[in-house]
Design a protein that fits this description.
Blueprint: H1 4-7, E1 18-21, H2 24-27, E2 36-37, H3 39-44, E3 55-58, E4 66-68, E5 76-78, E6 82-85
Parallel strand pairs: 1-5
Antiparallel strand pairs: 1-2, 3-4, 3-6
Length: about 90
């Protein structure tokens, strides 16, 4: 089984590309970006990709903060510190 934890080794991160969502649930601010991954890594991790309307909740550090991934936000994936909830439409 592929581990999300192993993915976040520094060798898998880059300076530009697809966002790795992390602090967004805590601050409810989707313009903050600390980490990026390449298109190839994004495609490998697409099951962790966020779509508009997904809820993200912090479950590490500041536990229980929730934010809604907004329309028009740049594509990205969740980090190991977040839980993604997909509401039933």
């Amino acid at each position: 089984m592929w581990s999300l934890w192993r993915f976040f080794e520094k060798r898998n991160l880059c300076r530009k590309g697809y966002k790795v969502e992390q602090g967004h649930a805590i601050k409810n601010n989707f313009s903050i970006v600390r980490y990026f991954i390449t298109k190839q890594k994004f495609e490998e991790m697409e099951r962790f990709a966020l779509e508009p309307g997904n809820l993200i909740m912090s479950w590490s550090g500041t536990i229980g903060k929730v934010a809604v991934f907004p329309e028009g936000a740049e594509e990205g994936i969740i980090s190991e510190a977040l839980l993604r909830l997909i509401p039933d439409k």
